[in-house]
Amino acid sequence: MDFSYSVLIPLIPLFAFLIIGLGGNKLKALASGLLGTTGLxxxxxxxxxxxxxxxxxxGKSAEGVYQKIVAFDMVWLRFTETLHINMGVxxxxxxxxxxxxxxxxxxxxxxxxxxxxxxxxxFERFFAFLSLFSxxxxxxxxATNIFQMYMFWExxxxxxxxxxxxxxxxxSAVAASKKAFIVTRFADLGFLIGILLYSYSTxxxxxxxxxxxxxxxxxxxxxxxxxxxxxxxxxxxxxxxGGAGKSAMFPLHIWLPxxxxxxxxxxxxxxAATMVVAGVYLVARLFPVYALSSPDALEVVxxxxxxxxxxxxxIACTQFDIKRVLAFSTMSQIGYMMLALGVSGYGEHGIGYMxxxxxxxxxxxxxxxxxxxxxxxxHAVHTNDLREMGGLRKYMPITHITFFVALMAIAGIPxxxxxxxxxxxxxxxFEHNKIIFFSSMLVAGLTxxxxxxxxxxxxxxxxxxxxxxxxxxxxVMYIPLIFLALVTVFAGFIPFGELVTSDGKALHLHIHWxxxxxxxxxxxxxxxxxxxxxxxxxxxxxxVVASLGGVYKTIxxxxxxxxxxxxxxxxxxxxxxxxxxxxxxxxxxxGTMDGIGWVTTTSSEKMKNFxxxxxxxxxxxxxxxxxxxxxxxxxxxxx
Amino acid sequence: xxxxxxxxxxxxxxxVIFSILTVSSKRILRSALYLLFVLVSTAGLYFMMNxxxxxxxxxxxxxxxxxxxxxFSVLLTSRINDRFASVKPAKAIxxxxxxxxxxxxxxxxxxxxxxxxxxxxxxxxxxxxxxxMQLLGYGTNGYALPFEVISVLLLASMIGAIIIAKKKxx
Amino acid sequence: MIxxxxxxxxxxxxxxxxxxxxxxxxxxxxxxxxxxxxxxILNSVNINFVAFNKFLYPDQLQGMFFTIFVVAxxxxxxxxxxxxxxxxxxxxxxxxxxxxxxxKH
Lengths: 639, 170, 105
Hints:
Chain B is mainly alpha-helical.
């Protein structure tokens, strides 16, 4: 049972990044693309092999429990005997599952990008960044300790920043990349403080020790309290803050819609399937600690997840930019995963945990599919705006069908994968908290509605006149679509309960029809409403909009959150805090330094005049000095 | 008022007045001449104190040697009718103040101090024989060593002056 | 000892002469006049030596000998100084002390 080859999975993209990044100018564009894609392909195959080996051959212990296996480990920084930072590879059900997700989506996106980015300036740069991102994300997933995770977390943030700002000549892309970076950095500050607090109370960074259910550490942090909550709870809430920033949870969600300025494959890879679920993965990674020693922190996770999910679903109904609709949809679905984690228990009651991971898996597939399809559409019609599209089903049949598959999956229609994962989430929510359950049901309906609206507006609706007749994309772009569509269709039948659970023991699941049937009905209602409104060109949507008036406008402007943030940062923080500090820095701190410099130069300028070279001037000074000395000595000697 | 006092006042006033003229005259040749008067008057003071040999040295070396040397160099480097520009008032005033303070301090401390002459000693003869005996003596009160050193110094300065002042041969 | 003339008279006289010399040294610009001022200063010192010898230690001749040596050194100094002055005059055609600043740069 040797998994040490798994260390190659993140390293191959790293080498690809180094080769493309350093030799990008020498390589032909196609060569660098092929290099990155091949590297990812190897990683992909290795991941599948690892998953097979882990889940079906070696992973289980004698009692049928999936083990945490440290396949590779080295001490990187040593502070004390127990507190040191390692670099390593940790294999357990969720990391193996994430390996598969990340490499699959990344591989598909690499292939797709070969077509999508063809002829773009900076093709090699794009592939270098993609490889960097893949390396960072895989390193994050495989982290053996929380600090390694933090480092790769930041690397992921950097690659996201680089890729959002890929079209750096566009001011909006630059602004978006800065916004994403600053917002997530702000959240990561909480993460870092959380890590430090947590490690301070436990004395280790290692996941194996931290999440050992039988161990001492899990109870250790609960003693010292602050504001009625234990130190552990505070640190976990702070860690969750980092996760919320990366996963675009309310109120740190504002960067995600703007991040759509990046190339569409990037949106599919980073801002739909992998990086944005890092927050979910983080909470899942520390789940035993959350579930067993700090239920309060888990409550926070549940409510923030539920609220974000609803909030984003409402906004998604009004947007016209197809990528933005998908961005809000992503946020909504991640909220789903968060709330599933939040309502979950540990061990036998861990259905929410399982459901969250399941949904993460299926969502990654169908959301990547949706983004790639959207990319194909944008590629064909050269616009992001829903209002300028329509009737595309005739021109792009493959895209149309794969998009439809993804729609069915996200809406939760059986037998597509989304149905199964969503059902488990709803079951978990129903058992735990009715408010969250009903909000999730509402979100399910809204999701079905806005996705159908998107679908009908693009592929049905009015027959728009296009400047160039849109045509189906090249095989290199639609083969990933077909592959992902197939995964989306069949992923629901993976027995996730057997494989990925909070404590490694199998969980036997069956579909709860008393919840599944209402959920499907709600989804069908949503689809029905959308069909009625958008399938044929009609005036009804405008009338609905008119009747909603101000409410619609508020939602269209995303509840004015960007404006509120701008107000808080620009008007309040900048004016009341930053400007006085800047003034202090410029005038007092710099002034002191400048003053010292000024005094020195001025006095030396003056002093320079003493050294005139004029003998007689020296003589008079000398005589004066002698007389002064005589006077001083005679004064002191007489007293 | 004794003859001595009259003589002293005469010499002293010549010294002071011509010193001032030496440093303030605008014509350099006149300055040199005033300096000569000062030096001769100093020799007069030495005569008063009965140091005849010293007074003779003063007149021959200073008045006859140095002043002549100075006058020669003046003739080499200046024109007779040249006049100095007057000193800048600020510089003159500040220098006068400094030197006046210095003079005041020195004189007041001199006047406050009570000099005690050596009591009950026989004044030594100051004739040329005595001077010669001591100058070349090497016992107690003998000055042979400084004499030799000074002679070497004079030789060195003579050679140096020639080397410095002569024209380059090239 | 000289009848009717205390030591202080000589000292005051030499002090005045000394500071007049200092004044000349500071304000005069011509190198030769500066040299003359130095001669004044040396002379005032000589008067001091001789007066002290005469009034305080009449049984010895140290002051007088010192004066003789000072005179000799003054002669040496004057000869070298005038050689330098002539050399300067040959080089820059001028013996104004404020313009002799070639070593400054």
